[in-house]
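Is this the right way to post structure tokens for a design question? Let me know if I should format differently. Anyway, here goes:
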């Protein structure tokens, strides 16, 4: 920079001196102006101008070099960044794939846990279901034995009864047979009531002078005709009154046994039907949703749990009229009631408990309230009731997943709502609201109607 300035100054000075020598005398004589001073000023201005231009050029060259260097650095950074982005993108894709695989595994594990919880609950029911089915089978077998052992005597009584029906009092005897068949299917008397009625009947027949009043009194009481003594006094006082009443008793026994068999078959059928409905959803996809009848759903679970319930508590169920159907997965909805009712039964200590189930319409859906008078929960337990693996039951009795699964089924799978109200040593009420339409919105407070 200094060499350039000195060279420019020397050149400028030489040129200026030459011009000054050539024209100085002429211009001085002609004008009287001191051109020497003008030339010096011009030289200084030119020198300054040249210096400024030179500095600007030098600065521009420096800036150019700096820009080129910066550009090269940016290019390097760009190439490096592109490589890093490519690497990070690949790394993130690999991690996302791993997370997707993990999520899929978690979903499968969750499905397996739900099935395991359901099968575990079903396992608790097996003994009770076996007992419930064994009872009607036992009744059917007893009725079969009676019919088998007494068939010859029943046929003989039918022959005798056919002859008696054509006698003058045959129509009255036929009415007595029909009344015995009808009355025996009514609610039976308790042992104490039956004893009191039998004693009164025997006393009445003795007062009327009926022969063998005690035997006839017992027979009349057994076929529930003790309140129609006056109507059938002619038959009771006839020579073969005992034989006629015995024939009527035997024939009415057949009808009574048939009703017993019918009731037993109906009970066993309901248990099997409920069990089939309970496990039906295992072969259906989780997302399969259809119209669910809440009465049928709750009755199915209650039928399966009836043996456990009846040994601990009295059960009351109240359904509101004209309940709307619920849109959901029948199998999952059954599992909701299974877990809640099982918890209610296990919360009751002793055998004098009470479980109330009320089902009513609320907004665009149905709210089910399951109340028990069991041990209840404190505030801390209520806060953790839906936490996975949290349980207040002894080791081996609870997995800690029941209410977690219920919460998932209600809230996530059915866009419903679940709430709990409980007081320690007083009992617990679980409220579950399920929508009746796909677009239904859960109300703010599902406990307001209970």
């Amino acid at each position: 920079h200094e060499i350039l300035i000195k060279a420019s100054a020397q050149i400028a000075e030489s040129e200026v001196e030459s011009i000054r020598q050539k024209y100085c005398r002429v211009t001085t004589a002609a004008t009287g102006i001191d051109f020497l001073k003008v030339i010096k000023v011009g030289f200084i201005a030119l020198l300054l101008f040249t210096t400024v231009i030179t500095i600007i050029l030098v600065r521009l060259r420096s800036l150019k070099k700096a820009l080129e260097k910066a550009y090269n650095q940016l290019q390097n950074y760009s190439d490096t960044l592109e490589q890093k982005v490519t690497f990070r993108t690949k790394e993130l894709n690999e991690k996302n794939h791993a997370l997707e695989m993990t999520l899929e595994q978690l979903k499968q594990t969750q499905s397996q846990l739900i099935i395991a919880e359901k099968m575990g609950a079903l396992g608790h029911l097996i003994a009770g279901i076996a007992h419930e089915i064994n009872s009607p089978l036992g009744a059917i077998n007893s009725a079969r034995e009676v019919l088998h052992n007494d068939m010859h005597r029943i046929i003989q009584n039918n022959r005798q009864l056919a002859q008696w029906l054509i006698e003058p009092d045959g129509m009255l005897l036929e009415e007595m047979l029909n009344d015995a068949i009808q009355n025996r299917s009514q609610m039976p008397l308790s042992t104490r009531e039956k004893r009191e009625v039998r004693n009164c009947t025997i006393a009445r027949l003795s007062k009327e002078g009926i022969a063998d009043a005690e035997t006839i009194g017992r027979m009349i009481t057994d076929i529930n005709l003790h309140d129609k003594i006056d109507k059938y006094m002619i038959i009771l006082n006839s020579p073969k009154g005992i034989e006629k009443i015995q024939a009527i008793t035997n024939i009415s026994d057949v009808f009574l046994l048939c009703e017993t068999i019918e009731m037993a078959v109906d009970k066993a059928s309901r248990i099997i039907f409920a069990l089939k409905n309970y496990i039906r959803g295992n072969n259906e996809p989780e997302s399969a949703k259809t119209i669910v009848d809440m009465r049928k759903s709750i009755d199915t679970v209650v039928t399966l749990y009836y043996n456990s319930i009846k040994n601990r508590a009295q059960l009351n169920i109240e359904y509101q009229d004209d309940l709307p159907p619920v849109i959901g997965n029948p199998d999952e909805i059954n599992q909701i009631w299974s877990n809640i009712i099982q918890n209610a039964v296990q919360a009751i200590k002793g055998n004098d408990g009470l479980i109330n189930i009320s089902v009513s319409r609320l907004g665009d859906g149905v709210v089910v309230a399951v109340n028990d008078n069991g041990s209840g929960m404190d505030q801390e337990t209520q806060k953790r009731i839906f936490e996975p693996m949290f349980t207040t039951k002894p080791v081996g009795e609870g997995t800690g997943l029941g209410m977690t699964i219920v919460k998932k089924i209600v809230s996530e799978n059915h866009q419903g709502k679940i709430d709990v109200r409980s007081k320690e040593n007083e009992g617990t009420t679980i409220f579950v609201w399920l929508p009746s339409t796909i677009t239904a919105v859960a109300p703010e407070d599902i406990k307001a109607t209970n």
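Format looks fine. Someone answered above. Worth noting: The beta strands are 290-292, 313-319, 326-328, 353-362, 365-372, 417-423, 427-435. The first helix runs from residue 2 to 31.
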